[in-house]
Amino acid sequence: MKISFEKTDKINGLLTITLAKADYEANVEKTLKDYRKKASLPGFRPGQAPMSILRKRFGQEVQAEELNKMLGTELYKYIREQKIDILGEPLPSDKQGEISLEADEQTFVFDIALAPEMDAKISDKDTVEYYNIKVDDAMVDNQVQMYASRAGGYQKVDEYQPKDMVKGILTELGKTGKPKRGGIEVEGATMLPDYMKDEDEKAKFNGMKAGDVITFNPSKAYNSDVELSSLLKITKDEAAAVTGDFQFQVSEITRYEPHALDQELFDIALGKDKVKSEEEFRAAIRENLSAQFKTDSEFRFVIDLKKYLVKRIGEVEFPEAMLKRIMQQNNPDKDAEFIEKNFQPSIEELKWHLIKEQLCDQLGIKVEQPDVLETAKEVTRMQFAQYGMTNIPEEALNNYANEMLKNKQQAEGLVTRTVERKLGVAAKTVVKIAEKTVTLDEFNKAFQEA
Length: 450
What we know:
Blueprint: E1 2-9, E2 12-20, H1 21-38, H2 51-81, E3 86-92, E4 105-114, E5 127-133, H3 137-150, E6 153-156, E7 165-172, E8 185-191, H4 199-203, E9 213-216, H5 218-222, H6 225-232, H7 236-240, E10 246-257, H8 263-270, H9 278-313, H10 320-330, H11 336-363, H12 369-385, H13 394-406, H14 408-427, E11 432-438, H15 440-449
Parallel strand pairs: 5-11
Antiparallel strand pairs: 1-2, 2-4, 3-4, 6-10, 7-8, 7-10, 9-10
């Protein structure tokens, strides 16, 4: 067996491997003997067929299989041992000669796409921005109100105010203004007058009290057959024919009241006995917000690190023709237009991938399964936090995270996120940090402009 590699230029290479029959004939013989043990050929007992017949019948097929296996093994072993930094997969070269299984040796030639040379290593001479997001009192107040609102409920009140819910009996009126014989009547009808589209009809409910009777026009109030059919418990077609007034006798008025800032709310929001006073409650909320914003700041830092390094490194020459061949091979059902459209974005992503590889090597970053699981749990925490749920039990977090990791696409994304998370932490200890303290609005605006 002979293997050689030559660079045809800085970003392309040729790898040639020659295999003689002697390199793989022992494997061929072993495989044929295994075939013999299982083969059942006419005229011979199982396992007793002559090797000459087996060679004639299966020889070339087995030889091709063993040749391909050895070729793949030796090819990647050589690339690994020689530390050839390749992009994608080796592809058969047009310099490849004709292959004949009858020949004593076979020579295979592969085109190799080489990773471009670039220096992505970082030092204290590199300066990258880092955003600290201020947690102000208004944020804490909004979060407190959100918890109180979510834990609140409807309470009976004496007099109607906007946003209150009213309940009562709806009765259709005739042209004389009296209840219509055989007309529509709905007991326990429930309405939120503040959501009515007609301001005049909406105003008729102002100041009403339980026991009051008012006359209004539901068709004008809602101007929607769908809403009207839901209110009157009739079909949409029937609702389209309803245009007259209705009498509404109020039986109950309820108002949504936020939960009091008491121990029950603290326990609902943060967990049993985690805090014991409003002061502690607000302090815990501030701490939770700071933790959430720190995650955002770390994520943004990696984006700014990427932006800085891509600019510092500048233009990089890639083996475009070879990479397009690889891209086409990986997408056999796509046409040339697809390749051209998606090629440049893939190059930009590849450049960042190569930068990350260099940085991970420099900073000694390794990613293991527990790291990926922690990232999945972090993502889960953030998702729950969006709904004000911050006291999720560890067991539940683990269950959600493990479910995410069962999805191949999600798992790959989490691995990438884990690499970048660890990279951001490590890089901050090396580069010079230009800290900026900003409001959340300023941070979001900077994010959009990135």
